[in-house]
Inverse folding.
């Protein structure tokens, strides 16, 4: 199994540009989420989804948009990139069990906004 | 705001020694998980402990959970160079699947 696949691995954007970070999982997981990781701050939740057609905001949603049209895919859109969005982005998925299950992470997308 | 805080921020030990790191959190939890991140890579799940459990083992890993103190510890025994990584605790709440991560402990194992 491929697990969680993120593309691209690296991206440089100019301020104001838009782009979509792709995330796909092949484990039939209900729950998917996007995090950003900044130095010294751990991972912060941007958006999450508990199933196809259902999304919700996390801790730091401003400037980002998501949709979940299929179980497998959960793209993250940057609407108008800003230097503050320079970060490493991780997508994760899990079965979404009530008493907790492990999350599987992609390898990350390193985004630089200039 | 982040739920978990790891302590220490960084740890340097000799190969063969044990490594202990702690995680404190603020609100009640359903479960607590530990993840490892090697440099430039994604996070890998290590172990999950539920709120009604006090201790769990997995190979060289031992995790404890004290819900009265809102804290957890991760012990890595007989460390190896391959254990060099950042370690994160993540807390899961009731009735949702969201995980809240701490800032992590960076562990360096010297050969």
């Amino acid at each position: 199994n491929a697990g969680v696949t993120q593309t691209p691995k690296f991206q440089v954007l100019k301020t104001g540009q838009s782009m979509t970070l792709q995330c796909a999982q092949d484990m039939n997981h209900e729950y998917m989420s996007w995090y950003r990781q900044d130095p010294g701050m751990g991972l912060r939740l941007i958006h999450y989804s508990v199933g196809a057609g259902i999304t919700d905001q996390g801790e730091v949603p401003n400037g980002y948009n998501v949709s979940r049209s299929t179980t497998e895919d959960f793209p993250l859109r940057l609407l108008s990139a800003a230097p503050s969005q320079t970060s490493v982005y991780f997508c994760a998925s899990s079965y979404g069990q009530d008493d907790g299950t492990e999350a599987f992470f992609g390898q990350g997308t390193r985004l630089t906004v200039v | 705001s982040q739920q978990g805080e790891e302590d220490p921020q960084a740890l340097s030990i000799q190969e063969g020694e044990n490594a202990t790191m702690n995680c404190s959190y603020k609100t009640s939890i359903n479960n607590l998980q530990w993840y490892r991140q090697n440099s430039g890579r994604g996070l890998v799940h290590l172990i999950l402990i539920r709120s009604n459990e006090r201790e769990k083992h997995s190979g060289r890993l031992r995790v404890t959970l004290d819900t009265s103190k809102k804290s957890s510890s991760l012990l890595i025994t007989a460390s190896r160079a391959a254990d060099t990584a950042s370690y994160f605790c993540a807390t899961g709440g009731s009735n949702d699947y969201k995980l809240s991560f701490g800032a992590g402990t960076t562990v360096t194992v010297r050969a």
Observations:
- DSSP finds no helices and eleven strands in chain A.
- Chain A touches chain B at residues 4, 31, 33, 35, 40-45, 48, 50, 58-59, 90, 92, 94, 96-108 (CB under 8 Å).
